[in-house]
Amino acid sequence: MASDLVAVALLIFASIVATLSTERAQPRLDSRMGWPASLALAIAAGVLFARGMGAAEAAAVVVVYLMAGIPAASLLMALRHRKSKRQTHDR
Fold it and tell me: Which residues touch 16 (CB under 8 Å, ≥6 apart)?
């Protein structure tokens, strides 16, 4: 159970790192560091998930989470950026 929670945390972090590695991100991570780090985090999460289920199922969980997690992280970061931009513009 604890390894599943750690795996989910790794996937959340992988989604954030992948979002920060895009060219339009503010602040931005260097893509030469960000994408490999995101991939390493996703692989680590897959290994942790594979302890409790088969490798194919673990890979499916990781892929489906990243397909949902990266857009969700992008949306949340965009909303945060828009809100902070609006607050500085109103002053």
Answer: 73, 77
Question: Is the pLDDT at 68 greater than 80, yes or no?
Answer: yes
Q: Using only C-alpha atoms, what is the Rg of the chain?
A: 15
Task: Report the C-alpha gap between 91 and 86 in whole angstroms.
Answer: 9
Closest to 17 measured CA to CA, from 77, 64, 61:
77
Distance CA 91, CA 46 (A): 46
The number of residues in the chain equals 91
Q: How far apart are CA 17 and CA 28, in angstroms?
A: 9
What's the pTM value of the predicted model, to 2 decimals? 0.77
